[in-house]
Design a protein that fits this description.
This protein is α+β, with helices and mostly antiparallel strands. The chain has 19 helices and 13 strands.
Length: about 550
């Protein structure tokens, strides 16, 4: 079971003054089920609105299409004026990979959107950044040069033939650039000074373009072409400037991290700390402007734990807590990950009701008169407890006095354990979901032959799902035996009994899930499928029994 891919879309519309027009566009976005509108930021001077929404890429590009269509109807570019460079009613529409999707896959979605807009709306489309079809089109500024007024001529040049749509200027909607780019993080770092000049000195140290080189007299040093020579900063893909914030009474380094693969958040923070310290100042905290992907804070948490020579195999919530405390993200205002992390904002807890119950609620729900949750969910959760115990031993072992040379070994095992634990937690609800699909299929109408056939097909698919769910519990649980055995063999001997209990729990999970597979196979007409499923169950049960015996033998020997 995999998490759904998530992309962010940040279209810029050439209207920032008429909120009625803007709302017509955002209404189109919100009309698409599964899309979450996160922000609408209009600017009067620029006469431009930046909109942010997220979701599965399929629904995001549908919402983007509807918004581009509506913008082309309600914004007349022939009458548009504003301070910001622009060329279309929807000036630019980037897609940004947030989670469980690559840049290449995101670019493919951008092309799918571009092709549909160009073909169906007669708006010339240029693909940019990671979706660019030509090197000179990667940079948005190159495409936008000449702006709306210049495109009537520019579009006739063969060099500037649109990627999608006809090479004919759409005088009403203009031209649109659609692309795929990395996530941009707006990030401010707080200093214990009120001096904007000193904050700027730190900004110049860290930003990619650095500072202009000067001689002993403070004059600019020029190259052979008479251009100033620059001393680059230490952080690639970082833009930064210093300023004083009267509201807080502190100076800040205001940064845009334009490629978090080049410079992650935690590296930018550390480099500012180094520069500030060297200049007699101190970083007191920081501030995230807008939202961030979960990986940004998880990676930061791991980075700071590794610097402390501690295991990184803890839960993602704990990792984020470490990141928030170390970065001082709550210095100026409370920092709530549920409101600042994109994945948490999108999380639908109703889709995983069992995973979010307390232990008491889970037990009471299981003991009730309803058929779910049942043995499948209970088996998955017993597996969770088993691998959690193995992971605990790994983390405890990483902190054992005198074992500093083994920290990486135990940390890596703990990370693997956390991943297996999270998979099993998601599977706790899978059994109930599978059961519900069977009930839905049983309740389908069967008055006609067509209805009977549709009902039969749905019931077969649901039954296979009910077989596969506990089968996956068996596979994932079995994969944790290697971790538990390693911890019984090499882990902290004071915790070896915990490894033994973990093995017993995992074996129980596998046995229980196996029973669920077998009961769901009863009466299923696809006998070849049933035979294969039962063979897989038998094989996994044999492996689990052997592994459990080996682990318990190690445990018993160490406890003699």
């Amino acid at each position: 079971m995999m998490y759904q891919p998530i992309v962010e879309c940040v279209p810029n519309f050439s209207e920032g003054r008429d909120m009625k027009v803007i709302k017509q566009i955002t209404d189109e976005i919100e009309s698409v089920e599964g899309v979450r509108l996160l922000d609408v930021d209009p600017g009067k001077a620029t006469n431009r609105t930046v909109v942010t929404f997220v979701g599965h890429p399929d629904v995001v590009i549908e919402a983007a299409y509807r918004a581009i269509k509506k913008a082309g109807e309600v914004i007349d570019m022939s009458k548009h004026k504003g301070e910001h460079p622009r060329m279309g009613a929807t000036d630019v529409c980037p897609l940004i990979p947030i989670a469980n999707i690559s840049m290449e896959e995101t670019a493919a979605y951008a092309h799918k959107l571009g092709q549909r807009v160009g073909n169906e709306l007669n708006i010339p489309i240029y693909m940019y950044e990671s979706a660019a079809t030509q090197p000179e089109r990667r940079n948005l500024a190159n495409i936008r040069a000449g702006e709306y007024e210049g495109f009537a001529t520019k579009i006739k040049d063969a060099k500037w033939k649109p990627d999608y749509g006809a090479a004919v200027m759409n005088t009403h909607a203009g031209v649109t650039a659609i692309g795929a780019r990395d996530f941009l993080i707006a990030y401010n770092i707080n200093l214990n000074t009120t001096s904007e000049r000193r904050a700027n000195s730190v900004a110049f140290d860290v930003r990619e373009v650095g500072r202009v080189k000067t001689n002993e007299k403070g004059k600019k040093v020029l190259d052979e072409n008479g251009q100033p020579i620059r001393i680059p900063g230490v952080c690639k893909s970082v833009k930064a400037i210093g300023w004083y914030i009267e509201e807080y009474g502190v100076a800040q380094i205001s940064m845009n991290l334009t490629n978090i693969n080049d410079t992650p958040l935690h590296i930018a923070f550390d480099e500012c700390c180094k520069s500030a310290t060297a200049r007699g100042m101190r970083v007191t905290g920081s501030e995230l402007v807008g939202l961030v992907p979960k990986s940004v804070l998880v990676d930061a948490g791991k980075y700071f734990l590794e610097k402390q020579r501690r295991s990184v195999g803890i839960s993602e919530r704990e990792l984020i807590h470490i990141a928030v405390r170390t970065l001082g993200l709550d210095e100026l205002a409370p920092f709530d990950p549920d409101k600042k992390v994109i994945e948490y904002l999108l999380e639908d807890k109703s889709a995983r009701p069992l995973a979010y119950k307390t232990l008491t609620e889970f037990a009471d729900s299981t003991a009730s008169e309803t058929p779910v949750p049942g043995g499948g969910s209970a088996s998955a959760y017993v597996g969770v407890l088993g691998v959690a115990l193995g992971t605990m031993v790994a983390n405890l072992s990483s902190h054992k006095k005198g074992w500093d040379d083994k920290i990486t070994y135990f940390s890596e095992w703990a990370e693997k354990g956390q991943a297996i634990k999270d998979k099993l937690l998601r599977l706790v609800d899978a059994d109930t979901q599978a059961y519900n699909k069977i009930i839905e299929a049983i309740r389908m109408p069967k008055a006609t032959d067509v209805e009977k056939q549709l009902r039969k097909e749905a019931l077969n698919a649901a039954t296979k799902g009910a077989i596969e769910a506990p089968m996956e519990v068996m596979r994932v649980s079995l994969s944790s035996m290697e971790l538990i055995k390693a911890m019984a063999t090499h882990g902290n001997p004071n915790s070896v009994s915990d490894a033994g209990v973990g093995a017993i729990c995992v074996r129980t999970a596998i046995e229980g899930a196996g029973l669920n597979v077998k009961i769901n196979c009863v009466g299923f007409e696809d006998q070849a499928y049933v035979a294969n499923a039962k063979q897989q169950v038998a094989d996994m049960l044999d492996q689990a029994k052997v592994m459990e015996q080996e682990i318990l033998a190690i445990v018993e020997k160490l406890m003699e």
